[in-house]
Design a protein that fits this description.
Elements: E1 7-9, E2 28-31, E3 34-37, E4 47-50, H1 54-63, E5 68-74, E6 79-87, H2 89-101, H3 103-135, H4 141-151, H5 163-166, H6 170-184, H7 188-193, H8 198-217, H9 220-228
Parallel strand pairs: 1-5
Antiparallel strand pairs: 2-3, 4-6, 5-6
Organism: Streptomyces nymphaeiformis
Protein name: DUF2293 domain-containing protein
Domain DUF2293: 132-217
Length: 229
Amino acid sequence: MDLVAPVVVEPLRRRRCSECHRGPLERMIVEFNAPVCLDCADLGHLVFLRRGDTALTRRAREASTLWAVVVRHNRRRTRYERQGLLVEEAALAEAERACLADADARAARRARDAVRRAALDAEITAVLLAEILRLFPSCPVDRATEIAVHASTKGSGRVGRTAAGRSLDRGAVTAAVRASVRHVDTPYDSLLMQGVPRHQARTRIAPAIEAVLRTWRQDVGTAGDRERG
C-alpha cells in the first residue's frame, strides 16, 4: 500500500491556528483552506530533520511510524520546495546511531566517488581543450586550457557541462571561446560598468571578437608563414 505523508508548510507570513488561535506559526498544515498548528494536527510530537544528509533522512523516515514532509514556497521560482522531514524523536536517534556506526565506510565511499568524479571532470576538460585547439589552431594553448577549464567546471551549467558541450557541438564550443574573448580581449566589461546596455555593448565589441576568432582559426603554419613574410 502506498503511503501518503502529511505535508507541513513553513508559512511566509504570520499565521495563527484556526483551532487553538495560537501563533505566529513556524509550521502548519492546511485543512479546508485554514491553517492548523502541529499540536492540533497531532504532529506536535515530531522533530524536524533538515534536508541534506540522504542516509540520515532515509533511515529516520524508515524508522518513524509517522512522518511528514516540510515545504516552503519559493516566490521567485513559484513553487514549493522541500525543507526536510518531521519524524519521531526515537526514530531520529536510531537513524543517527546507524549512520555513526557506518560513518567510516560512507566516508571511504565518498572519497572513491570523488576520485572518479575528478577523473571524469579531467577527461571532459581534456576533450574540450582538444576540440578548441582543433577549431582554433592558433589559439595559445594556455588560453585554450583556461577556456576549457572554465567552460567545464562542475555544477556551473556552462557549455562544457551541457549535452551540446559534451557532444562537442561546434556551435557550443565556439560559444565558449567567444565568451572568453568577449570578457578578456574587449572592453565589454568596462562598457557594462559604464551603464551601457548589454545588447549595445555586445554590438560595439562584436567586430573585435570576430577579429580575434579569425586569427585563432588560422592554421598555425599559415600564421607563421605570414609573420615571416
